[in-house]
Specification:
- This protein is of the alpha+beta class.
- It has 2 domains: about 200 residues, no CATH class; about 170 residues, no CATH class.
- Helices cover about 55% and strands about 15% of the residues.
- The protein is built from 13 helices and 10 strands.
- The protein has a 6-stranded mixed barrel.
Amino acid sequence: MFLRPRAMLRFSVPSRLRIATYLLTGEAGRALFRHKVRSALAMLGITIGVAAVNWVVAIGQASAERVAAQLDNLGDNLIWVEAGSRNRAGVRTGTRGTTTLTLDDGEAVAREVAGVKAMTPNIDGGIHLAWGNRNWTSRYRGVNTKYFAIRRWQIQHGASFTDEDDSRAASVCVIGQTVREQLFGGTNPVGQMIRVEQQPFEVIGVLAAKGQSATGFDQDDTIVMPFATAQRRVKGAAFTWLDDILLSATSPAAVEPAVIEIVMLLRERHHIGPGDEDDFNIRRPQELINAQIAQSRVLALLLISVASVSLVVGGVGVMNVMLASVVERTQEIGLRLAVGAPVWAIRAQFLGEAVLLCFVGGAFGIGSSYAGTFVFEHALAWRLSLSAPVIAAALLCSAGLGIFFGFYPAHRAAGLDPIEALRHE
């Protein structure tokens, strides 16, 4: 084909496609195989870059899924009204320094704020528990029956207490998984009697595990009892104020409007004048989780950018290899041009070698990504997965790098003067 004078060569479009295919596959593969070590080192940069990007994307997705699961565990559009100002005269008073939040406040909010669908009063504190010769210090929580729906907390064994249990201040409780493990070990706790500050309580249920909160607090280290029981038997009848009011909004979009109405209603009920500090504060746990999600996304983008640098470095390495190949094969290029090889064929051959280098490097990078996910899964105890769109994008990106960084060496090879190239030593 290349032995006819250039002026006599005329190629149809199908012929050009067949020639280009041959150059991109067979001829390019043989040329790269002649220099195995150099080709392998050039592909290594692409392999590392593709694997790094895939790992970062997989870890970022797993992190976002974990944070989203934490958001779901927080509750059903949870709004948390806490007694005490967050910043009164520069000092945080907290829940223990204020006695103005009452059960009437919670009932008024549930009755008058349209965006609220469920409410539970809450009193809590540290408490000593005992069963047989085992002891444990945990935190109790006195709530009504709507608490479990508001917090989206399932009962794993037994049952929760009823409104009747609450009205008669029954000595019953539901315990978390940590309390169950510390007090009962492998024994079924349902129906057992425990001592709560020397008072007998019957365990009627065990909560499903929730794990740690976003702030690292063990949510399963808890004992939940009816509100009236906690108020009369644990807190003391003289303590009539609440530590918190937990609310569930009708939808995520209803949270902010409900918060505004709650603030106005409580300020009015507590006779707080304009410009005066609130004696309560409203916490939105979703805001914390959403901030963590946004932060994780920014971090993932930053890590992807850093990982992409290795792809660029790998592409530069491929370009250097191709430039070295052009220098080594200058006489070969001159001979082909002299006997009539078209410029586009020379360009296609070297461009094909660069694309093949990057594409094979990307394929090895994907294989390394799958192998690396097993290591990261064991190290992070997360479930990682590589999505098909990311893999396809990685292969396309590899081919694109080959075209971008291979264009200059290919253009340089095609632009050689045949006579000067044949004289090259």
